[in-house]
Every structure is written in C-alpha cells, then in structure tokens.
Amino acid sequence: MAPVLPGLCDDDASIDATVSAVAAAGAASVTRLVLHLRPGAREWYARWLGREHPHLVPRYRELYRAGAYAPQAYQREVAARVRIAARRHGLAPAGVGEARRPAAEPGPPPADQLTLL
User: CA-CA distance, 34 to 96, in Å (whole number)?
Assistant: First the structure.
C-alpha cells in the first residue's frame, strides 16, 4: 500500500477503503509505505503540492524537514491505523521485509537416495 501521502490518503477513511480493496482483491496481508521524497522527486512533488494542495505545504515542510523520510513517529501512527484496518478486513499486516520477499515455491519432490555401490 504505497505511497501513503500525508494529508491526502492517510486518514482513517482512506486507509480503510484501501485495505478493504486489498482484501477484496484476495491479498493475505498488507504492508504500508509512507511517501519518501528523494532529490528530484522532492522538488517535483513540492511544486505539484504547492499548486494543487497549498494548504498542505506547511505540513510537508514539517514532516520532511530532516530529509527524504517522514519521522518515525508519523510512520508508526500510519502503521497502527493500517494494522487496525487489516484486522477489520481479515488481513494480517506484513512483517518487516515480508512484502519484498517472494512466496516460497515448492521444490521438486524428494528423490530416493541412490547408493554408490
């Protein structure tokens, strides 16, 4: 579930609607990723935000003043709301790194051990 955009889709109703759609699509778990703004994307997004949602510019300046990532406290707050929505919709929240790890594929059936002699 990415990116979660502060002030645009981080409220309870938006999170619940997204998690509901994820569950309806057949997912077993959900993980979230709050927007990060690296150089290049940061400048482009700042111009877009100022043009389309100027009332959010002060909030973004506060959240991203220290760098590309929102503060851990904000990320934990979003994670908690996603966990609540996930439980409500019968999904498990994905663990750290789990979303990037492919599901284990079954290997070939075990073969009989051959003897050398």
Answer: 14
Name 30's bridge partners.
Answer: 93
Residue 72 has phi, psi (to 5 degrees) of -55, -35
CB-based burial label for 18 (10 Å; 0-12, 13-18, 19+):
middle
Helices (H), the chain: 12-24, 41-52, 57-63, 72-88
pLDDT for res 92:
77
Predicted structure pTM score: 0.76
Residues 11-29 pLDDT 10s: 999 999 999 999 999 999 9
| Long-range pairs of 66-74 with CB within 8 A, sequence gap ≥ 24 | 68/36, 68/37, 68/38, 68/39, 68/42, 69/34, 69/36, 70/6, 70/34, 70/35, 70/36, 74/6, 74/34
* pLDDT tens string 60-104: 999 999 999 999 999 999 999 999 999 999 997 665 554 444 455
Q: Quickly count: other Cβ atoms within 10 Å of residue 86's Cβ.
A: 24
